Amino acid sequence: MSENPESVNAESVNESVVDLEVDERATHQTVRSVTRALDIMGQFTDGSTRARSIADIVEASGLAKTTVIRLLYTLESEGLLASTSRGYIPGPSLWRWARAANQAWELPPQARAVMKQLVEREKETVNLFIRRGRTRICVAQEESPLPLRHVVHIGDQLPLVSGASSKVLLSQVSADNVQHVYVGAHASAPPLDVLVADLEMVRAQGFAVSHGEREEGISAVGAPVRAESGEVVAALTYSGPTLRFPEERIPGLANALMAAAATLSTLGIDHPLRSIN
Questions:
Q1: How many domains does the chain have?
Q2: Where would a tag sit more exposed on the chain, N or C end, judged by fewer CB atoms within 10 A?
Q3: How many CB atoms lie within 10 A of CB 195?
Q4: Last residue of a domain, which of 71, 94, 117?
């Protein structure tokens, strides 16, 4: 099954050991072994194509080598990872998962058309984000045709305490929940009191703006997509270099986004864009 000299074999795994202890950051529904396995899989989602050795995975995870070996054996057995002479790489079974995710999350053609029209109008990248706990996830994108543009990858999980899309997604969240989300905020995140004030502004004007909050030199404008109930289920955004987002351009971008977001809302886009808390 493996050409990797470090590849895990069944003899190295004590299958009688079932790791059911709960991780400190996990809920009562999540066993530690599952969280650890997902953490290992997460090491392969940074956009790099390089293979990873057992030593690499041990160092990045902070886990004991014996624990990593046990988890790698299971992941490789299920086809989620594959071992090569260079180390471990994503496994072929992930194609099934990717296909299922694409089918579940793919936007209807009418929604795609709305996003493409936004790009044609302003020549800036358009993204659709949803909330996932303390992060926001990009679930759809139409890229700017300009050579200098801002692009995130579909599936990227970004901080929920900075950026226009974050402010949109937090605009209906209680003050206590905002404080909870803010715990452990990254260094470039706006201060909590500034974020709270920004959320008040989003609620008042119907859109959010950010300049260099997550990444220096990048700006964004965002508007809420709502379910029939009025719940904010997604954030529709323009993003690009700050030099192309002067203050006099913001109202036009915001108006275009709010109109498009309203159209998406009338299309009944709700599931699977309903926020996951």
A1: 2
A2: C
A3: 22
A4: 94
Block residue for tokens 């790099």: 48
One-character DSSP codes across 82-150 = EEETTEEEE-TTHHHHHHHHHHHHPPPHHHHHHHHHHHHHH-SEEEEEEEETTEEEEEEEE--SSSS--
129 and 259 co-located in one domain: yes
d(CA 22, CA 61): 17
- Residue 196 falls within a domain, yes or no? yes
Calpha distance 211→249 (Å, rounded): 13
Domain identity same for 251 and 116: yes
The tokens describing 130, both together, are: 């949803």
Residue 252 included in any domain: yes
CATH number of 220's domain:
3.30.450.40
Taking CA 231 as the corner, what is the angle to CA 225 and CA 234, rounded to the nearest 5 degrees?
Answer: 35
Same domain? For 155 and 81 the reply is: no
**Same-domain pairing of 254 and 161:** yes
The neighbour count for residue 31, using CB atoms within 10 Å, is 16
- Kindly give the residue spans of alpha helices, DSSP state H, lying in the chain: 32-42, 54-61, 65-77, 94-105, 109-122, 164-170, 175-182, 192-205, 250-266
Evaluate whether residue 1 is within a structural domain. no
Coil vs helix vs strand at 193: helix
- CA-to-CA distance for 187 and 196, rounded, in angstroms? 17
